[in-house]
Amino acid sequence: MNDRFMTNLKSIWGGLSLLFVMAALQAFSGSIVQDTLSERLLREGKYRMLSARIDEQLKKGGRNNSNDLRLYYYNKLSMAHFRLNNFDSAMICARQALLLSSSSKDSTLIGEAWKMMSYSFNRLGQLDSAIYFSNKLLNYAKRAGDDHQYRNALISMGTILMQNQRPADALKNFTEANRINKQMNDTAFFSIDYFNIGLVHLKLKQYDSCLYYMREALGTLQKFRNPNLLLMTYGTMADCYLAMGKKADRMKYLLLAMDVAEQTGSSQFLAMGYCNLIEGCLIERDFSLAVKYGFAADSLLKKEPFPVQQMKLDSMMYVAFSRLSKPAEALARYMSFMKMKNQVISENQSALLNRLMLEYNVKEKNLRIEKQESDIRSKKKQLQLLGLLLVITVFFIVRLTSQNNKLRKFRESLYRKEKYLDKQIAEMIMYKFPSLTANTPPPGNAAVQPDPGKTDESMPPQDPLQQEALYVRLLDVMENQKLYLDIDMSLNTLVNLLGTNKTYLYQAISSNSSENFRGLINRYRVNEAKRIIEESVARSLVFDGASLYSAAGFNSSVSFFRAFKHYTGLTPKEYAVETKKEARKHTLEMAADSPLGD
User: Fold this and answer.
1) Rounded CA separation 487/500 (Å)
2) Smallest Cα–Cα separation from 120: which of 299, 112, 164, 27?
3) Which residues lie closer than 8 Å to 341 by C-beta, 6 or more apart?
4) Dihedrals φ, ψ of 375, to 5°?
5) Per-residue pLDDT tens over the stretch 454-489
6) How far apart are alpha carbons 185 and 429 in whole angstroms?
């Protein structure tokens, strides 16, 4: 019986020992409050899904959830809103987490609450409060020897220093955070470290170093995929290449960033990408493309409003419409910018306004007085706006008139240049090919007959005299028979007519002209179109632009307008206008030079 008692006693003691060890391990293992699905959504950057998940869990559990579990959820919810740029919502969740942390003994959860308070205050521009919570986190981490919280505090302080335009000090914090991460071998955070360090180097205009760390970040992101960080990394590389003047590389990474934003369904980040494209277009002075990108960004910001980004977009669209001489659209963007600016200011001051109303207990009478004063101010603003509108209207009228004058002078210079070049080309042909201009036949046997037994590639090349003779025959045929007016004319038609082959004809053209076969034919057709236009002007006929392309030998209006613009720098309509002006000018000069009474 004693043996059985001793056996039972040992079993009980062993069980108590096991429970004691498990309790000790739990006490020293840190926080075990965690939601696996929420952690995975956070790692994958699916912040909207994370927000919906936590809202569901908080509603489902309600007050039945433990204090630490609710603290955990509010910390993660604050981070989700922060990553979605909903900084006011992030601050509300962070304050709720801070309130719950007063009843918690979990240092990890408490530190997370301090971190989110610091991050939220930082983004809201309240740097004093951000520094306060960062210091709390930093001091606690040093006392407790908690490397994870020490790293978070360093990153928070580095971000604040960047906001205060102190990149050199920020670099020290981010570098130290990276050292701590390597010491802990927390590879999931390496991409964040490399991004932060690279961003500081961009601020310091150390572009090679910036690109090095951004590539390091991309390398780690291949393993630990974080779409938002990937998007920001691509965007930073685009900014770096823009500063370096490498437009192609900048466009490559900007498009990569937009692709990631589109995949993640982030309308805000996609709109941000379009705004960066607009910025590049404004630098390149491609204002039409800037407007196109602006409309795309507008549609995205309607789905997911972002007031600060909308203000930036409106300011750039105002510049683009101004340069395109569209005063109505430019004014609309200016008004939208001012409206959004006033909204942002009023939102930032809403908390102060509420506190003042509670403090002084404003009465209904005072509110009516304030309303009357507000109406007076509103009328004053309307008058100021009308004055501003008048100034802007006058400015745009003057600018539009100036642009029209410059455009008119530019077209006149292009027309004069075209007429001068026509004259020069005619004189050059007269000098180089006198036999053509004298209407004398070209030298006999100038064109070598192709050998039926050989292909074009196997035939021996012609000598320069034969090539010139063949080229003269080609010009003679083109001038006299006007084959270029035939829409269906092909290279084979000329080969058969001249009794030669493609190789010889190509050699003749390339040896005696700076154009290829297609360019030569297009030049003849454009000259024909110019002749028709000048004849219509001289005979005071109505200029028919619709049928002009077929009359000149082109098979489509698109190819005709492209060729005409290429050779003259003007559209057919602009050429007709300049021809009329030149004719009137010539008539006036003749009238001035003629004797009185004629």
Assistant:
1) 22
2) 112
3) 311
4) -65, -40
5) 334 444 455 788 888 888 888 888 888 888 888 888
6) 79
